[in-house]
Amino acid sequence: MKAIVLTEPCKAEEMNLTDIPMPQVKPGWVLIKVKAFGINHSEVLLRQFEVAQAYINKPIVPGIECVGEVVDPSDSGFKVGQRVVALMGGMGRSFNGSYAEYALLPASHIFSVVSGLEWTELAAIPETFYTAYGSLVMSLQLSSEDTLLIRGGSSTVGIAAIQLAKSIGAKVVATTRSERKGEFLLQYGADDVILEGDDFCRRFLARYPGGATKVLELIGASTLRESLRLTAYHGIVCHTGLLGGVYGLKNFDPIKEIPAGVYLAGFYSNRPSQEQVDGMMSLIEKGRIRPVIAECFPLNRISDAHLLAERRGQIGKIVVTVPD
User: Is the pTM here over 0.90, yes or no?
Assistant: First the structure.
């Protein structure tokens, strides 16, 4: 079968399809015909430098998510031809992932889906929408009574969170650094957009003096202290993203820096369940959500997909389709 295989760091232009043996089915694993997959920033980092680390099982086929059909269910209980999504759990790092015509994946990280979406649209959902869903529903416990502040609203997870939050019925205030992207966020359901930058706290509180009841922090540690101060009494902040490029906080004193009556949570998308995937798909169906796709590439143009992802200026998910 055709696949992308990494053994060492490389440029996007150096990723080329190669022939590798078809995976051999074994108990507890399911063989999937990959139809499409989304591109994630973590896969760009894997190609650029992380593949050199000893914990990456090389040679490795990248790809932390995919959508497709079951070819051989082994002993899993899935059925041949069943439509499924797969994500995380070591895909593309501990074992071969989705940048291939077929993928052999643990049954525990494959989930059945019932959806009328095309393969390209479905491929924009697994990791992005599950991260947004888990943050909103599992960590923030979002309800229709909430005012939700999404910091980093023009990211792929931010856009998905706007769409899901509106399906729940919450009021959504999103942030971005770009006026052009701000207009886009209003079109996709945000009730209000506030530009990031100087004096953000004052500008936000001038509009929402009581603060936000829930905050989805996608910029990360660089703005977390600020977000905690913008949260209403008994409100919750969920730290999910790292868009700001700061991966930890020095001298962070939780007793002094988490305001009394404000709760700090986090979300990590590595262990989804079928029940959670069903809940996510139900919200997508309820809101008649169509995921936002920045651009779609065939598998033989994977290098172009990575080049676009490196620029990080696109709005929406980059999707790669795999021919039959």
Answer: yes
